[in-house]
Amino acid sequence: MALIGVFDSGVGGLSILDEALRQLPEHDFIYLADSAHAPYGERSGAWIASRSLALCTYLASQGCDAIVVACNTATAEAIAQIRIELDTIPIVGVEPGIKPAVMQSQNGVLGVLATEATLNSDKFNALLHAISPNCTVIKQAGAGLVPLIEAGKANTDETLALLAKHLEPIQKAGADTLVLGCTHYPFLNKAIHQILGESITLIDTSEAVVRQLKRQLNNPEKKVQTVKAGSIIFLSSKDEKTLLKMAKELMRSDLNAHAIDAKLLRDLE
């Protein structure tokens, strides 16, 4: 049985944890939400890189056998350095699903909803350069969406109105596929379909991310024993009780099947 760290700027990475519990329920997890400093997408690249490395180093010090950087912004700005510094354990990142979107689109018009930091990153732009020049990509920053989701307002009229504003350029361009370039955004799936219609294809890479994690854990050198269900520690830099409450509200997994604890992160403050 492995101990897996899942790190995000806030509650967005719960979408990754949810999928991890579906594919890997037997393992133990630490979910670290840096909610005191969310959203990362509006911060400088240097700050994101430094903070992300510090938090992943903390998770490694807690005995994690693998770490998922479940934040597109942190992955774009920091994962290369994290992998250098923590080279003894697998580090799995997330990135916008541009390639699967190209494969699934029927008309070659793609929308990408992500944070400003992700859209401006070298890593994201390298993904764009690798796709067919016949594809049209409409990039849209989802400014303001993450704080609303963090505040438990994913399904409010306020969020719906802001989301509609952000999706307008994508809708006008006739995109048939939308890449969710932030792990917070899968919690807006219902609202997105309400605005764009049921025919829009949403690309969420959480399943692929966890498959990659699973491959890393199945490495013969890192073979683990399996049991029925592992434990989950919810760790927040802001409010551990709110994090646990939101996990129960947002996640589809049956958390009652796992031993659960919620703690406040103090070590790095």
Automatic annotation (TrEMBL):
<comment type="function">
    <text>Provides the (R)-glutamate required for cell wall biosynthesis.</text>
</comment>
<keyword id="KW-0413">Isomerase</keyword>
<comment type="similarity">
    <text>Belongs to the aspartate/glutamate racemases family.</text>
</comment>
<dbReference type="InterPro" id="IPR004391">
    <property type="entry name" value="Glu_race"/>
</dbReference>
<dbReference type="InterPro" id="IPR033134">
    <property type="entry name" value="Asp/Glu_racemase_AS_2"/>
</dbReference>
<feature type="binding site">
    <location>
        <begin position="183"/>
        <end position="184"/>
    </location>
    <ligand>
        <name>substrate</name>
    </ligand>
</feature>
<dbReference type="GO" id="GO:0008881">
    <property type="term" value="F:glutamate racemase activity"/>
</dbReference>
<dbReference type="GO" id="GO:0071555">
    <property type="term" value="P:cell wall organization"/>
</dbReference>
<protein>
    <recommendedName>
        <fullName>Glutamate racemase</fullName>
        <ecNumber>5.1.1.3</ecNumber>
    </recommendedName>
</protein>
<comment type="pathway">
    <text>Cell wall biogenesis; peptidoglycan biosynthesis.</text>
</comment>
<keyword id="KW-0133">Cell shape</keyword>
<feature type="binding site">
    <location>
        <begin position="72"/>
        <end position="73"/>
    </location>
    <ligand>
        <name>substrate</name>
    </ligand>
</feature>
<keyword id="KW-0573">Peptidoglycan synthesis</keyword>
<feature type="active site" description="Proton donor/acceptor">
    <location>
        <position position="71"/>
    </location>
</feature>
<dbReference type="InterPro" id="IPR015942">
    <property type="entry name" value="Asp/Glu/hydantoin_racemase"/>
</dbReference>
<keyword id="KW-0961">Cell wall biogenesis/degradation</keyword>
<dbReference type="InterPro" id="IPR001920">
    <property type="entry name" value="Asp/Glu_race"/>
</dbReference>
<dbReference type="GO" id="GO:0008360">
    <property type="term" value="P:regulation of cell shape"/>
</dbReference>
<dbReference type="Pfam" id="PF01177">
    <property type="entry name" value="Asp_Glu_race"/>
</dbReference>
<dbReference type="InterPro" id="IPR018187">
    <property type="entry name" value="Asp/Glu_racemase_AS_1"/>
</dbReference>
<dbReference type="GO" id="GO:0009252">
    <property type="term" value="P:peptidoglycan biosynthetic process"/>
</dbReference>
<feature type="binding site">
    <location>
        <begin position="40"/>
        <end position="41"/>
    </location>
    <ligand>
        <name>substrate</name>
    </ligand>
</feature>
<feature type="binding site">
    <location>
        <begin position="8"/>
        <end position="9"/>
    </location>
    <ligand>
        <name>substrate</name>
    </ligand>
</feature>
<feature type="active site" description="Proton donor/acceptor">
    <location>
        <position position="182"/>
    </location>
</feature>
